[in-house]
Design brief:
Elements: H1 5-23, H2 29-40, H3 44-57, H4 62-74, H5 78-91, H6 96-109, H7 113-126, H8 132-148, H9 151-167, H10 172-184, H11 188-200
Helix pairs in contact: 1-2, 2-3, 2-4, 3-4, 4-5, 5-6, 6-7, 6-8, 7-8, 8-9, 8-10, 9-10, 10-11
């Protein structure tokens, strides 16, 4: 019996993370690694337990708070997500931009779209040359366009995806997001053109194929 590759990798990662925890039980790194593996497997309760243990060992571990925010987002507990992300900023202000995006994602997941938009816009102003906020806004307007089926929202989504492409033409993210939106709208020609444009720029990503 040979396990599927993804399971084999998870098992190997878990083995080494457990070994790291055993060799250095007073170091939070092993617990954070085990928390991430559990989160990837969507075992949120186990992930929370590992992240909490990492936090007990060393209070100022940003990765533990970020991991806990992901756990609470999965549970749609927006207040707890915001609380954990605020702790990250207290520890290290360099995470400010990423925290804005993560807070926006939490509100987005909870379908609190107005709050999500405010945070994405704030992130865009904070770092106008980074593409995460543009893609997040594109995802938001694309979702609103699907829900309310309004041309205006779809046009906004297209604008922000294109902005992401303009900001980082060598990264696949913007192309994938825009092509996916066209695909969902059954605009097949536009989707194919977007993928070809990415491939012409030597942007390699399996989602473009």
């Amino acid at each position: 019996y040979l396990p599927e590759p993804s399971y084999a990798r998870d098992d190997l990662a878990q083995k080494y993370a457990q070994k790291a925890k055993g060799l250095a039980p007073n170091n939070p790194i092993g617990y954070v690694a085990l928390g991430r593996i559990s989160a990837q497997q969507e075992d949120w309760n186990q992930a929370e337990e590992y992240y909490q243990q990492a936090k007990k060992i060393e209070r100022d571990v940003t990765d533990a708070y970020l991991g806990l925010s992901e756990v609470f987002e999965a549970h749609r507990d927006v207040d707890s997500v915001i609380e954990k992300l605020d702790e990250v900023i207290k520890i290290d202000t360099s995470y400010y931009y990423n925290v804005l995006i993560r807070k926006g994602n939490a509100y987005f997941s909870a379908r609190q779209f107005e709050e999500a938009e405010k945070l994405y816009q704030q992130a865009k102003k904070e770092a106008p040359d980074r593409i995460d906020a543009y893609i997040a806004l594109g995802d938001l307007y694309s979702t609103l366009g699907s829900i309310y089926w309004t041309v205006g929202q779809s046009a906004k989504a297209e604008k922000f995806y294109q902005k992401a492409i303009d900001k980082a033409p060598d990264l696949a993210d913007g192309y994938v997001a825009l092509a996916t939106m066209y695909e969902n709208r059954e605009k097949w020609v536009h989707a194919i053109k977007t993928c070809k444009k990415a491939l012409d720029k030597d942007v390699n990503n399996l989602k473009l194929l």
